[in-house]
Amino acid sequence: MFEFESFDVAVVGAGHAGIEAALAAARIGAKTAIFTITLDAIGNMPCNPSIGGTAKGHIVFELDALGGEMGRAADATTLQSRMLNMTKGPAVHSLRVQSDRRAYHAYMKSALESQDNLYIIQDEIVGIEVENGAVRAVNTKLGGIYPTKSVVIATGTYLGGKIFVGESSKVSGPDGTTAAIGLTDSLRSLGLSLRRFKTGTPARVHRRSIDFSVLDRQDGDSIITPFCFDNKREITNKVSCYIGYTNETTHEVIRANLDRSPLYGGMIEGIGPRYCPSLEDKVVRFPDRARHQFFVEPCGLNTDEMYLQGMSSSLPLDVQLMFYHTIKGLEKVEIMRPAYAIEYDCCDPLELYATLESKKISGLFGAGQFNGTSGYEEAAAQGFVAGVNAAHKVLGRKPLILGRDSGYIGTLIDDLVTKGVRDPYRMMTSRSEYRLVLRQDNADRRLCPVGRELGLVDADKYKIFLDNTEMLSRELERLRTTSVKPTPELSDMLVEKGFDRPTAPLTLDSLLRRPGISQDDLAPFDPGRPRRDIAEKAAVEIKYEGYLKRQYSQIDKQKRLETTPLSAEIDYRSIVGLRTEAAIKLNDIKPLTMGQALRISGVNPADISVLSVWMSKRRRERVHELRRGEREVLRPMFDGWSILTCIDSGLEGVFGRAFVDDTEEPRAAVLAVGDILAAAGDTEAHGAELIEAAVRSRSPRNVCIIGRNDEWSKLIENGFPDAVRATRYAFEHIQPDITDDKLREYSGELPDGVEIFYELSHEQFNALKKNADFNEFVINYDGYEDYLKRSVGAFAAKDGEIIGGAAAYTVYSDGCEVALEVREDMRRKGIARAVSSAMILKCRERGLIPCWDAANTVSAHIAESLGYRPSGEYTAYYVKGE
Description:
Elements: E1 2-3, E2 7-12, H1 16-28, E3 32-36, E4 50-52, H2 56-66, H3 70-76, E5 78-84, E6 94-99, H4 101-113, E7 118-122, E8 125-131, E9 134-140, E10 144-153, E11 162-165, E12 168-171, H5 182-189, E13 194-201, E14 204-206, E15 216-218, E16 241-245, H6 248-256, H7 262-265, H8 279-285, E17 293-298, E18 305-309, H9 317-324, E19 335-337, E20 340-347, E21 364-366, H10 376-395, H11 408-419, H12 443-454, H13 459-481, E22 483-484, H14 488-496, E23 506-507, H15 508-512, H16 519-522, H17 532-543, H18 545-562, H19 580-589, H20 594-598, H21 605-638, E24 643-647, E25 657-659, H22 680-698, H23 709-717, H24 727-733, H25 740-747, E26 754-758, H26 762-768, H27 772-779, H28 784-790, E27 791-798, E28 801-809, H29 824-828, H30 832-845, H31 857-865, E29 868-871, E30 877-880
Parallel strand pairs: 1-10, 2-3, 2-10, 3-7, 10-21
Antiparallel strand pairs: 4-6, 5-6, 8-9, 9-10, 11-12, 11-20, 13-20, 14-18, 14-19, 15-16, 16-17, 17-18, 22-23, 24-25, 24-30, 26-27, 27-28, 29-30
Helix pairs in contact: 1-10, 2-10, 2-12, 6-9, 12-13, 13-17, 13-26, 25-30
């Protein structure tokens, strides 16, 4: 054995999962190696030579928005493009392209080869070295030791692969390649739970042996939609596909030979896919079906191999030929590659965190079929997330966790790590409870800012995204404000569609809301429309506006649970009243949030209620414990002082700190902002030092610090003693004293020309942003995408220029989430009070508890109501008395 150079991230496997993992990790900045048994199988399509399909197309669009490669490769190698389910609603419209198999391989191999910071190594990984519970190195079959800090297992169907064709079987990877054998034992020795799954593929047949004249021809779309919204290639349909059907004679041949099938003869141990069964499985499971549909699809421009989609089988070669010859159009078909079934080893995804990191081995990540899924698209999505998180772990950055409300990628991973799998998982639109929100057409709006934040969406692509978003915003406004006169032609069209003749002008959006009225129907009456894709997206937003609002409301409610954290240290067996089954499942999975806990099979709403009560009780006990312990520590520091201090040092400093007096119980908590150390993540000791200095110099008699749990722990790490958390007390005792009438009084008169915008959307933000500094701050702000979706905020603008803003997260738990600070120049213009008070009013209108902004206006109101007077202009100390 010889120790070679070290890597930050090692990716095992160069299939669809491995490619995305390696590219993401390298592009983020981690020195990355990708290991493959053979370079000739990089990006191989051992099954269907296509990308996308129902729900799978959604994943590819999301990958592209995040900065993945699959959509770009699909666009570059398209043979035929079709948008599926167009007779149904937009939630299930799904793009599917037939790709040139060899061109796709060449594209992905080139993408890996040309990527800086990425090294391609042809060798088989046979072992993972672990030290103190964390990955240390990977070992290869050729005797190499490669030290590494993170490993992504993306072995596809190679791990322990075994191929079956009738009575014949052999140890093999897909397409007759070498299987990966040694790694399984290494993973088992590390304590991972492995299982055996099975999948299969149809035969490849020669084009000349097919009678296409008796098959149904299927051409591509006349208007092609690319996967990449920044695509600059010309995409054309180059081939046709064909549809055929089995018949009863076909089924009789299969039934007569079931005893020779390894699937029914007991040779195959692995569990097969439920939603993509073999042909013999279809015949057995659906005996009343007289025929089954299949598709004849080309594998590439430079080959005569044709793929028979829907005809997967593990029957012997002679039986395959026999039943193919019973099918109309395939009577003389020549098999070039026989259909086969393949068994392989995979992990139990319940042993993974939502980051796809193993719960047992630090730095070990899983992706793709190793995690129990099937499909190129599912694999690529997991590879991307695993690669990002593997790199982030090494580089000390926060993990990427996509929620179910963010996209199908988040749904896929949550299903795996929360519900687990009993058979190979396949994504379907029905798996998402938010599918109307998670459409293909808005994948860029949902996830492109996330990709930009990760550093995987470059400036050019992001500018196209911003331009498209702005165009969509303008189009929505145009549709709502543009009226069409009731001409005879318009009246005739409406009558034909079943509506009454109009007697007055109608706005375009009101026309689009009518069932059966499409953009194409309005084309003769609307010459001012933008390019087609923008017009179509706007039409969807208009038509489904009511349903979308309802679904967004459901998402907001669910986020109450998603933002309630659960500690991995909880022993659920100790919670009185929790059912035994629920306690066992919760201990096994260790959910990170209450929302994830509710989705675990075996945990019901009653269990969540018990858990909520237990958590509230534990929080109260912890607060009392802190108060008792801190009183003795803090009393000497605060003795003799009666001061309420609010520190607010602008964008460059710590976001906001609150100190209150009252020796026995905190009587007030100044919620200047929610996050006690939002900036301390960047300035580590600075935040704690500032607080401690303030306490020691001003010495209030008691301290209330309001912040997130992770920032609370930073205070402890930085040597500052635990402070009393009394957020709930403040909500209950302070907020009710600030009446709506008082808030309106505090708002006062706005300066001339100043407008306040609430709940700034992407479109509004892009339309209003003029101030480059403010724009840069917000775009780079941690969690900007989530902030836009969840915040109740107010931004002030004059003449289209944002001159300041205050925004706050809705508070869903005892702690406050992070809030965006008001710009300093807003205070100088004298409008902070108005914006702050208006924001609180807006929160109340929606029944929400606001986490107040950092403008100090609310702080001043509370202080004044308690008999304090302000001192200082921007950094305010409120002193009791005169």
